[in-house]
Every structure is written in C-alpha cells, then in structure tokens.
Amino acid sequence: MHLKAIPSKSLKWFANHLFGAILGLSLAAIFAAWGAFFSSSAKRILGYAIQLLSTPPPLWATISLILLSALYTSLKIRQHQKSCNPPNIQEELREELGVYWNNQYKLRCLKCKWPLKCASKNFDSSTFWCSNCNNKHELRDKNGNHLTEAQAIEQLKKLPTSQ
Ligand SMILES: [Zn+2]
User: Fold this and answer.
1) Domain for residue 87, yes or no?
2) How many angstroms separate the CA atoms of 24 and 133, rounded?
3) Residue 138 belongs to what H/E stretch?
C-alpha cells in the first residue's frame, strides 16, 4: 500500500539532484564555451574576450542571475505539476461517466486514482488529464455525449448512490 510513496519520494530526490546536475551542466557549458572561445583565438578575439571579461561584473551577474532564475522557475513549475496530493487509498471511489469519483464529486484517474486536472484550453472542457500517469479521460454520458465537469456532477447526483 505504500508503494506509491516510494516513487514520489524518489521523484523528489531526483528533482533535487536534477537541479544540481543542471547547475553543474550549465557551468560546464559556460566553461566549455569559454574554452572554445579562447582556443579559436586570433589575438583580436582574445583582445575582445579580455575586453568582455573586464566589463563590469554586474553585467555577468545579471546574465547568470537571469539564467539561474529561469532554470529555477521552470523547475518549480515542474515540481508544482508533480506535487499534487497522492491518492488517498482509503478514499471510496465510484466509477461513473468514464472516471472515478470520490464522495466530494472530485475526479480521479481510472488507472492510478490520482486527482484529474482539467486539460489545456486546446481541449474541450470534458477532457481531463492525470498528472501522475499522463492518461487522458473524457467525461461522457451513456450515449457518448461529452459532459463538462458540472454537467457530470449534476448527472451523478441523480444516479442512485449505491454501487
Ligand atoms: Zn493516473
């Protein structure tokens, strides 16, 4: 039953180390770029490089800060996408209209029982994604008509509760 906790922990570990790895890689890339810069050196280029190096540090600091904050932001967004709550195993779910529902009418993935998220604007409002296993789910009634979340809940409330 704790099987789910292990991947999410290792994911966090991975994310933390990934950040270090990205930092290391970008530093290595900068050094490599500098190496290439110097090795292809005509004296003119070298002179240019020295000139660049002697530019006030704020310029370099700004560039690296921007790069780092961009990296950090993208990592945070990724973490946020992955950090939705793991499924509550004790939660009672019922399968209706193409997804699982808990007793608060929240949508859950049929495969892994994680909370489902509304798909992007490119899809219609009956399409939902599982951020855990990346499966797509569509809300449809018995006749195959697309349903929005609100419509599905409305139908669900009319259905007999025992299953
Ligand atoms: Zn899933």
Assistant:
1) no
2) 30
3) strand 136-138
pLDDT in tens, 32-79: 777 776 666 567 766 776 777 777 677 778 888 999 999 999 888 877
Cα 137 to ligand 1 centre (Å): 9
Identify whether residues 108 and 75 lie together within a single domain. no
Domain's final residue, options 82, 105, 125:
82
- Compute the distance from residue 51 Cα to the ligand 1 centre, in Å: 55
**Range(s) of the domain holding residue 24:** 5-82
Tell me: the pLDDT tens digits for 109-132? Answer: 999 999 998 876 767 789 999 989
Distance 106 CA to ligand 1 centre (A): 14
Residue 163 domain flag: no
CA 87 / ligand 1 centre spacing (Å): 10
Identify which has the larger pLDDT, 8 or 52. 52
Residues 30 and 71 placed together within one structural domain of the fold: yes
Distance 131 CA to ligand 1 centre (A): 7
CA distances 24 to 17, 19, 33, 34, 44, Å, are: 10, 9, 14, 15, 30
Asked if residue 135 is part of any domain, the answer here is: yes
Whose CA is closest to 103, among 111, 91, 95?
Answer: 91
With respect to residue 70, please indicate whether it lies within any of the assigned structural domains. Answer: yes
